[in-house]
Amino acid sequence: MKIICIGRNYTDHIKELENEKPTDPVVFLKPDTSILLKKQPFFIPDFSDDVHHEVEILVKINKVGKHIDKKFAHKYYDDIGLGIDFTARDLQAQLKAKGLPWEKAKAFDGAAVIGEWLPKKNFEDLNNLNFSLKKNDELVQNGNTSLMLWKIDEIIEYVSKYFTLKIGDIIFTGTPAGVGRVIANDKLIGFIEDKQLFSITVK
Question: What's the whole-model pTM score?
């Protein structure tokens, strides 16, 4: 399986990092080794002093597809979830300044938190989902999928032009504003609406 991530998909997040608004989705990949194992803490890597949390809605692909039209995209997933795209922001800044790929800052071991999955049929409108992240019981990120520049089905259409989607692939759909540094002993809890989907400790 592969993890396909969408960057710069919320305007307020683009502004907070002072990035340019993209004309097409920004796409990068994480390997399966980046998945944080269940019930394990997140260990801050020794190569970064500025790791940020980025909470995101996730989509799990349920069948093989290529060049998927947006109007058929809904047939390629049954479940949605919530996760964190951990980012070594200091390392990412160094790489971006040199025009180099981001993988070392985004795809390191443990950099992808994947919470519980929920049937999409549980929700009336996937384009109007509230989701949030609390750090030490303080609300730090609060988003709604209505604010995505590219909605879930549009993302599937776009990425399937370049990558064959396979059963079990996971798409991270982008993070809203409020990203921030994590330090040892932080506790991160993620929610879709009022349902808790993950809880992790930082070490």
Answer: 0.94
